[in-house]
């Protein structure tokens, strides 16, 4: 399995400073939806994301078997009607493990990115709006963190925190935070230079109100796009950590952990590797398609 | 500056509202400090309309923004002076107290109504802001007042338009909304910074007419900053010509247009087209040669001297004080070492014809 795209090289991740805020004239959710719908790839991405989220949310109902129940008759069994995705090395149903594994993957993606946004957004807002030495300090720390490759940092943190899915989420979230600090700061600085911010100051708004009421809503689209793309990277990171034994612990299923075991049986039972690999591919592709679609739909320069 | 304030007071009634004394603003840029405002002093009376003209970089906008702490600091910094507004020195007030004045007793209207309204907030949300901040109105009362304000600035069907976003308004209507925000708390002073520059000529005329009507209704003082002498002539009681961060000439509007005493003012007036003269007016427009000085290294004397055909050696060496122009209307102040009327009179006949008010 590939260790995935390094976060900082994923498309659209490093927004250049001074890039204009994405949305100039919102107020129309319907028109945004229309622009998103006009992009087949974005709709496909959204459909897959919705499907995966649905499957993960209702895993208990959807999965035909208990994902940890062993069946000696199904050990490394080839795909069949009873086990459409086959059985694994101790006879667990691969389909059920894929379905339950979606919880670990999507959960890790959403929770870690949620954490990264929750930390990165306020810090970036502070850096971008306060400026001066606060900005300099935060940005130098962020630069230092960004200098360490995303996955290496996540592995180091996960190893330090100890192997568990929660710690893997924490490690991924902390590793992705610097990207959001940087993006938020760049966006805040771009919006803060807008004339309406000066106008807001001229009516006597205190700084906190300008930051939260006048600047924050204008940078949400950019953060949303970045978050969607980062979820894709986080899913790969979770799979990588689990593959290395630093994420989801057996017997609970996780796509990455399933691959670790499957690599020992590539000759006899290739389906053990194919399905989790395909799932990771599909989930990452879906979030990337959705993220790209969101960016295009929210970008005023591409409107016609 | 030894501006003679007593002549001013004798001329116009009304108590002093804003008293700017020797204001100096510097921007610490790479390559040296930029001296943006270099000792500006003047008094604005209650209910007076002051038109400030000058080209980009003359300090006309920067000096009013600096008074209210609206320039970025750093790199900007106030290097000296006092600005007394209703007896309080604005430059000495802490930011918290200044915020109570901004939008409350002093309202602003900015240049570009396309970009000075927040695109993500409805018009009501933006008009309500100063009302809630300064007057502490409840959400309901503020909204009712916002509706009245839209009526006041003649936006038809105000109630229905409150919840619309700025992009649903035309340029002229957005500037009306900006004026509504500027006037929301019934300020004693309204500062309009190039408020009509970004608008069509016809819309400009509507906005100027609206401001004049509102002034008659509400009686606030106005500082109208522009580079458009036509607008200044229509709206001002007093005109002040700024160049390189200094006031070069100041006086009653009629006096400035009919009897300019500074060569820069003359240059500005001569660069206006005169459509009223028919074929006789069809001549190449006058243009002031050269460009404004590099304010990192302001010239030692009169900053306009390098571009001024009438400049004397003294102009290049020593800055003239702003003082009552000899033989001019009371309150007509000029900073010049030369006697402009005498110099023009010596030129070819007809040269003064360009000086009529437009």
Automatic annotation (TrEMBL), chain A:
Identification of the protein by name: Glutathione transport system permease protein GsiD
InterPro entries, per the entry: BP-dependent_transpt_permease, MetI-like, MetI-like_sf, OppC_N
This protein's record includes keyword Cell membrane: yes
Compartment(s): Cell membrane
Main location: membrane
CDD domains from the UniProt entry: TM_PBP2
Membrane topology: Multi-pass membrane protein
GO terms classed as biological process: transmembrane transport
Gene Ontology, cellular component aspect: plasma membrane
TrEMBL record, chain B:
InterPro entries the record matches: AAA+_ATPase (IPR003593), ABC_Ni/Peptide_Import (IPR050388), ABC_transporter-like_ATP-bd (IPR003439), ABC_transporter-like_CS (IPR017871), Oligopep_ABC_C (IPR013563), P-loop_NTPase (IPR027417)
UniProt key word Transmembrane: no
Membrane disposition: Peripheral membrane protein
Pfam families: ABC_tran, oligo_HPY
Cellular localization per UniProt: Cell inner membrane
GO BP annotations listed: peptide transport; transmembrane transport
Region (Disordered): 286-308
Origin: domain of life: Bacteria
Record's signal peptide: none
UniProt KW Nuclease keyword: no
Keywords (A to Z) from UniProt: ATP-binding, Cell membrane, Membrane, Nucleotide-binding, Transport
UniProt main location, coarse: membrane
Family per similarity comment: Belongs to the ABC transporter superfamily.
Protein name: Oligopeptide transport ATP-binding protein OppD
Gene name, Swiss-Prot/TrEMBL: oppD_1
